[in-house]
Structure formats: C-alpha cells, structure tokens
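**Protein fold record**
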Amino acid sequence: MWIADNWTDYEVIDTSCGEKLERWGKYILLRPDPQVIWNTPKHTKEWNQLNGHYHRSAKGGGEWEFFHLPDEWSIKYRDLTFHLKPFSFKHTGLFPEQAVNWDWFSQIIKESARPGKTLKVLNLFAYTGGATLAAAKAGASVTHVDASKGMVTWAKENAAASGLSDAPIRWLVDDCVKFVEREIRRGNTYNGIIMDPPSYGRGPKGEIWKIEDSIYPFIEQTCRLLTKDSLFFLINSYTTGLQPAVLTYMLNTALVPKLGGQAVSSEIGLPVSSNGLILPCGASGRWTPLSN
C-alpha cells in the first residue's frame, strides 16, 4: 500500500462505527467512511471535541452539524496551501491520501527538468487542484481540466494561496472526454497525465460519465496524448469494482504495447494515529517508462 504519511496539518485520529475522526488543521471533523466496518472502543478525547459531524441519512445523502467551525479555513502540505470548506456529500475540498501521489510525480518532474525544456502535464477531472498545484510547484506547465466551474474557481484560489498565481497553469472548464478528443485532433502532447475520474458524473452540457463503461476506452484515447519521451501516467479510483489489479491490467494493455515501460498499482491509505493502522482510501495505478 502507498501511504500518505507526510502530513502535519491533517491526520486520521481514529475510526469506528462507520466513521473516521479527522483533524484538519486545528479543527476536528467526523465523517462517514464505507471502509470502516468495525465497531471499536472510542478512547481518544477528540471523539468529544468535534467541530463538524456529517450525518449520513438512511434515505441517501446527509447533512452537516457544526460546532464552532468557520465557513472556510486553510491547511498546508509542504509548500502548498489549500482552502477547505465543508460542502455536500461530506467533502471538504481535498483528498489527503492523494499526497502520496503528489510526492511521487513531483519527484519525477524535478528529476526530469532540463534547462530550456518545458515539461507539460495534463490533469483531468482535476477537482480543486491538489495534483495541479503539486505538479506546478515541481516545475511543470499544467493544463487543469474539470467540468465544474466552481471547482476550477476553487482550484485557482488554492493556487493563489500557494504562491502559484503566475505559474504556467491553464485553467479549463470542459468535459474531459471531449477535451481529450480535441487535443488529439490538434496534435497536442504531454509529458505526464493525471486522471481522477468519478464513478458517475455529468459534463457541463449533461454528458453522462459512468466509469465502468467509459474508463478503458478513455485511457486508450488519453494515452495518445503522451509524448514519446513521456514521464508518467497516473489514474486514481475510488470505485469499488476498480481494484488495483484492474488498474494495472488496463494500463498494461493500453500503454505498455505502445510506449513500453511498466505499470504498477496499489491501494492508497492514511495512517491512523491512535493505533498505527492504515485506513485504505481507494487505489492508484502508475505507469512509467522506467522504474520510478
């Protein structure tokens, strides 16, 4: 498992009864987590010091209950700053487990930098820009694509807070599938590609995305945008049916015959500070031309 264990402003404190107890900066949140199927004793004091609790509804969805929690606050990861705010579907605007991938591709970008050479990275389904900011901070020129105007605006705010307002980032509100199709026609290429596809979603004009039906042909299409000297391809999955072995299989069949290299996949996770165990948080698949 790849573990995001370099945080100081975030931690999973404990898990029990279908929920995870987290510290986001100085605020304590309690949110549902489908992986937490155990009912263990709640010994840590933070169970009684909540600033926010997302209550899941038996009918689907849910709602927040707040206790002295500001509308918005910030946390840092290394040199990056992220604005947080609780919103629908229990989210805060950041997936901390992805930091393990930020570190991975940031190192590749830094090691591949050459004077006068621009490294281009494409970030699809880019959300609030965690991966975009990490790649830009490492020295890449990034194209950030998401179908939600609100998420792209949020990502720009995170970039400004991280001192990246003038970084070479192209911000696009667009349907990712249609954008890739246009980029292929234009003949544009990238040194690295990141994609974080949702299980289900709609584009800005109502285009339906269902990951089980769409993801493999989309990977096949998107890998056509990689340069011959490409650096990496990263795909993330929070969908139960897309286990690490499935991600490896897709990358091996879509990328390796055309570009060589190798694909590896793993669960990603976050350490739980109260007991030293690891909370699984989805999976990631990584392709590189060599071992990275």
Notes: Helices lie at 99-112, 130-138, 149-161, 176-186, 211-222, 244-254, 256-259. Residues 84 and 93 are 6 Å apart (CA to CA). The radius of gyration is 19 Å. The first helix runs from residue 99 to 112.
